[in-house]
Each structure stands twice: as C-alpha cells, then as structure tokens.
Write a structure and sequence with these properties.
Length: 415
C-alpha cells in the first residue's frame, strides 16, 4: 500500500486547487461561509457549465469523447481536491458516474457518440431501472419484459425505488428479452427515453414526507432496437459493470464525510458534557478508528488498481468495504443521537449546517421538512440497502470467496 503520491500527481493537485480557488464564489474557503437560497440556486445552475468549461466533468474519459484522458492517479487527485473544497464534481450522478462509464466500456461507437456528449454537458438526466417489487436482492429474477417489434423494443413491467425518475430524460433499464433462457442469461440492458406514453412515475412518500424514490410502470413503452448496451441477453454482465462503478467511485474520498461528522460529534459532546460519559468516549474512539480503517482501505484499493491487481481478494475488498462503511455509518448515527439528544430530531432545535446533509428533502412541495440530523439518520438506514444489501454482500463473500455452503433455497410449495 502506497501512502505517498508521485511528484507529478502533486503538481496536478496544485493545478486543480488553483482552478477551484479562481472559479468558486468569493469567500467559499472562509470559515463559516454560507449562501442564501437565491445564491445557492444561482450557483447550482451555473456550476455545471463551469465544470464543463474547465474540462473536469468525466475528465478521465478518453479525449475523443470529450474527456481529458486523465490517468487513474490524476483522477484520484481530482476527486480529492474537489472533496477537500466541498465542491460538486458532477453534472448528473447516474449519467456521468454510472451509465456513462458503462457505455464507454460496453457501448457501440454510435451509442458513445450520441449519449456521452449529452451526459458530459449535463443535458441529459438519468435514472436506474434495476429493482422490482419482487426482485431486489435477487435482481436476476426480474420480470419486466422487452419484446422486439420491428425496430423497437416494447417494454412492460414495473420498477421500484427508482431515484430521480420524475426528473430523468432516460432510464438505463434491465429487462428480460429471452424468457426461455436461465434467469441470468436472458436479460438485456436498455436505454429507454422517459418522456413517452406508456411510462408512469409515482412517488413513494417516506416517513419524513419526501418522495425522491419512485415506482415506475411501463405499459407498451418503447425504445429503439439499437439501444441495447453490451449485446442482446448479456445485460447481467453489463449491469455488474455499472454496480462496480457505483461501489468503487470514492476509494480515497469516501471517508471524508464521516471524518467531518466525527468532528461535529466530538465538538457537541465537549459542549454539552457528554464527553465525560465513558460509553460516549468509547463510541467516539470506535468511530474514529473505523473511519481511519476506511481511509487506509481506500489507499489499499488505489494501490491495487495502480498495480493492475485483479485477484479475488481485490473483488472481495470492494464488497466488504461497502458493508463496512454502511454499517459503520448506521451505528455512528445512533451514537450521534446519544450525543445530541432526541431534541436534535426536531426541526426547530436541530443542529444547523455542518455535514448533516438534508439529502432526502422534498423538492418544491409543501411537506414536513426533516431536520438535517433526522435526514442523516434516515439516510444512514438506507445505506445498508442501496448498492447491494449488507446481507447479500455477506452471502457473496461467504460463498464465492470463503467457500462456505450456499444459502438454502426456500422449499417449493407443494401442489
């Protein structure tokens, strides 16, 4: 594991830091800097164009598709500097982090030329159509079908927990295109336009009043025949590529938000006297230790990537890292409630700002607005589910890497 970066990487770091200092709003790096609602709106509207102008959106993509062709090391430094500055580094998460790299890896030349520029310029928003009501952890059992009708696929079925579907222009969707094939073999990965008859999006209202997740119903919806990524009936392999991009995108930066939350928890415990409770001190020490383990594991993953290591241990590390940080954060949010007290869940007494993100707040609706602490607490519960549930990750590690017996299947119902 390497703990120091080469000189050329540090030179590139200076270039990025200089650009950020020149392009972020005045006062951004000052302690206590805040923007009002109008300033935030203006910033969010203008920032993607600045990123694109600087060449930082999808900068690791090849130059022929509009990227800078950054090396792995350069891309890591880029992510670290944007994280340090707390500056957004993407136009659309699902586009430039998930489906974009998947199209780069598996797409046809025509697909790359059509979709990648729009993703990079922030002109096309995406959602992910994988999970179904009866096919979440066992994704390969999905039932949404796509039947070829001339030059178009006709799609019928339902997806669920589809984040941002109400705003998406396209959905990268898994559908069964060969119902006679084994369940992992008859799936295709389709790029489906959302603005068409036959697609209905219904928000799933959460306990805090938000509705970022959705159900999506497809009734004779259509997409072009050529919108299959990676070849007909090969969607399972392509989908796993997408999931690998989701799980491995923040190897050396993911720990930072947890580090910030740890510091907030220590400061509050010192302020209200709970730091004198030995159980609180032990909990904080445990959280700090786990954050440092996460940071070091990120460096291990980076070293293995740079060395081209692709053994089973590397794959297992990616799976266990996801389990580790999601369960670590779930437990840390329970510790935070012990420190801040139950009053921190109330809208009018909750801690302001910091890294308690109101990540699930309702958009443009008159709804109950959870406190930042409550949002972080709720979101931490979901983190052990999205991107692969902790239980399923344990099964995969146990069966594929440790050689343990497969989990028993439920008995078939008697006729």
């Amino acid at each position: 594991m390497d703990l120091t970066y080469p000189p050329e990487a540090e030179e590139f770091r200076v270039e990025i830091r200089t650009w950020l200092e020149e392009n972020l709003p005045d006062g951004w790096f000052d302690e206590g800097f805040e923007m009002d609602a109008e300033e935030k709106k203006a910033f969010n509207e203008a920032w993607p164009a600045k990123l694109y102008g600087g060449g930082w959106i999808c900068a690791s993509w090849p130059t022929e598709y509009g990227g800078k062709g950054l090396s792995t090391m350069q891309n890591v430094v880029l992510a670290e500097e944007f994280a340090r500055a707390k500056a957004p580094l993407r136009a659309d998460f699902f586009g430039d982090t998930l489906v974009g790299p998947t199209i780069l890896q598996h797409g046809t030349e025509e697909q790359k030329k059509h979709f990648l520029p729009k993703i990079m310029q922030g002109e096309m928003a995406w959602c992910q159509g994988f999970s179904e009501p009866d096919s979440g952890s066992d994704l390969a059992s999905l039932k949404t079908s796509a039947v070829l009708d001339g030059d178009e696929w006709v799609i019928n079925g339902q997806k669920v927990w589809t984040t941002q579907a109400q705003f998406a222009d396209y959905c990268f969707l898994l559908a069964r295109t060969d119902p006679q094939a084994p369940k992992h073999k008859g799936i295709s990965y389709l790029l489906v336009p959302m603005d068409q008859p036959g697609i209905e999006v219904r928000g799933i209202v959460q306990p805090d009043g938000t509705a970022e997740f959705n159900e999506v119903f497809f009734t004779d919806a259509r997409c072009p025949k050529d919108n299959v990524v990676g070849g007909l009936n090969d969607g399972w392999k392509v989908a796993n590529s997408t999931l690998s991009h989701e799980r491995g995108m923040s190897a050396t930066t993911g720990y930072r938000r947890f580090q910030q939350e740890y510091e907030l928890m220590v400061a509050e415990a010192q302020r209200n006297g709970r730091i004198d409770d030995p159980l609180i001190r032990q909990g904080l020490a445990r959280y700090y230790t786990k954050v440092q383990i996460l940071r070091i594991n990120g460096l291990r993953s980076l070293t293995q990537t740079l060395n081209g290591t692709k053994d089973m241990g590397v794959i297992a590390l990616g799976l266990t890292n996801k389990m580790f940080w999601s369960e670590m954060h779930r437990d840390a949010m329970e510790l935070a409630l012990d420190i801040f007290g139950t009053a921190s869940l109330l809208v009018d007494t909750a801690p302001e700002g910091g890294s308690w993100p109101a990540v699930m707040r309702a958009k443009g609706r008159d709804a109950y607005r959870p406190s930042p602490m409550m949002s972080a607490f709720f979101f931490s519960r979901s983190e052990t589910i999205w991107g692969g549930t902790a239980e399923i990750q344990r099964n995969i590690v146990g069966e594929r890497f440790l050689g343990l017996p497969r989990e028993p299947k439920p008995a078939e119902p008697k006729a």
